[in-house]
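Summary for the funding panel

The consortium committed to producing paired sequence-structure records for every protein in the target list. Below we show the first two records in order, beginning with the earlier of the two.
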Amino acid sequence: MRLFVIAGLVAATFAGSSAFAQTSGYSHHTFCLQTGSSKECAYDSMAQCLQAKTGNKDTCVPNSMPQNH
């Protein structure tokens, strides 16, 4: 019976640590490329964003601070 309790505790410990590992990979990017009504926030610098522009109507804008992170 103790073996089942110990196995359950070990499993719960590993399950909790893997969930934490998945959320710790979050990266807030500083700039967004805005094309019409769509916005792609995947750039760490203004230069990266400007390189991704494909037309004169595309604009690079600062990304707002993340909420609840």
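The next record, for a separate protein in the list, is shown here:
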Amino acid sequence: MNQTLPPSAHARATLVLGLPLIGSHLAQMALHVADTVMMGRYGVPELAATVLGASSFFIIFILGAGFAQAVMPMVAQALGRGDEVQVRRDVRMGMWLSIGYGVLCYPLFWWSGPILLALGQQDDVARLGQDFMRIAGLGMIPALLVMVLKNYLAALQRTQVVLWVTLIAVGVNVAVGWPLIFGKWGAPELGVRGAAIAAVVVQVATAGILAIYAGWLPELRRFRLFQRFWRSDWQAMGQVFRLGWPIGITSLMEGGMFQASSLMMGWIGTVELAAHGIAMQVASLAFMFHVGLSNAATVRAGRAIGAGDARGLRDGARVAIALSFGFGLAMVALMLALPGPIIAVFLDASNAQTAQIIAVGTLLLVMAALFQMADAMQVMALGLLRGIRDTKVPMIAAAVSYWGIGIPCSYALGFPLGFGAAGIWFGLVVGLMFAAVAMMLRFWTLAPKA
């Protein structure tokens, strides 16, 4: 790790580690798409309840997933130092914290009906949403354990298994969900409850497969991951907690910013909201590439820090940023060259509002081109900072950038200044750009000199 590597070697190592992670993130998106398609064929209230329940699950999940995400840089640094005992301690306490969080948050799922009603949802949607969330909430603990194990394996540079397990999960979700939702193949027709059961089955099965792989694969047995799992380790738990809770808050604020933009878009009109949803879906698909590279950058930065390789840290960071920037430019060119055809893929040509949605969506994709570069840089900066175990200051930078700058700019540009949908998106770009600049400066300031 301390030998000087050429940029091509850094690029190869980053892509070998990152490409399977990119694929796993895309497969994770496919899980949600499959649920939407199945429930869309079942009924409109059921679809609304499932979307509402799944988005609520995700918001609660990303807060708790901060502990799982903290495991990746901690394990990477321990491996860089050659400290295999610390690897086991960090992963085990990451799982303990995830289990504790899952238990503590379950009352939110059980009492979700009254909460949804208090938030202004219709009676039937709130009732169906509660049916979904009471079952889906049982999957919070295995879902968080999956995150811990995925981050552990990624830190070990075993990302291909993460990809394959996620792809298997997509198939299991459809195979279990389809009969339980629609009552096929002799199964009872359970509607939203069938979708929730399928989600829990997927999470439990995925956690089981990853646990078996991580615990019993001959090459990994030396870590003795589950040996005396019941024994507490308060020092390691404190370290995971201190690193993890700011990550969870940062993810929550970022997700909340996009939720707020959707809410503001709905104030303008249905056509604008539909166009916003499509443009956001396109941007999200492209964003998965940057997330995967950011994860790879976290692992490689952590290993470099653990090994005391300042030159490798800085060179690897430059290459990861260049790869992300290059892909971002390619996506910008695509979005600017073919905005109409890209939007049209998501629409029914016979719909009377399709032409309006394409017109608005085309304008939003121009904004998405700017958005792409800003979002890519801020997520890469976050990944690098996590690799050197810096999470509290980035959390503050995110709060100021997303909610102190981005959302106010979106509102001001969209409404008082009259730029509408394009103004809302440009406000997001401004917020993300502030975050990218602040976090990049933070990383290059903290990164040890070679």
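Regarding this second record: The two ends are 13 Å apart (CA to CA). The CA atoms of residues 265 and 273 lie 5 Å apart.
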